[in-house]
Amino acid sequence: WNMKKICCLILILFLFTGCENQEEQEKNDYIAYKNNLLSTKEYSKDLPLDIIIDIKREDEQTVDYTVKLANPKENMHKVRAMVVNNYSNEAVFPTIGLFDEKEELLVENKDFNEVELEGTIESTKNISSLKLKLKVWIEYQNDTGEKKEVYYQM
Length: 154
Hints:
This protein is 23% helix and 36% strand.
């Protein structure tokens, strides 16, 4: 009987310490991917899709940017992506598949052939003098399950 109590107690301890908080894991992943993307110097030569960037002034204080991932050249499953910029701000950088569901980008399916990441920069400078640098990271699996990564800088 005493042994049962001890085993039960050990099992309960394992359950409480073994379960990692999902939210905490997502934050840790986000920070790791962000730091990796900010420090990367190697960029992909052949892009497996179109990366379309749109930058516009929202108001006197704010510049919005949209990064559209579209027209994949191969099926892209379980897509995760992040866009970082060279302006420090308190906001979380735009992501796909880190805090929400991973996306699908499919060659033959118009319903699943583009996604957008949107972000904001606080600045009163003209867009032309911003010297804005955007870096994009995309991770996905192709049809054979091979994991691929893309790094792009604008």
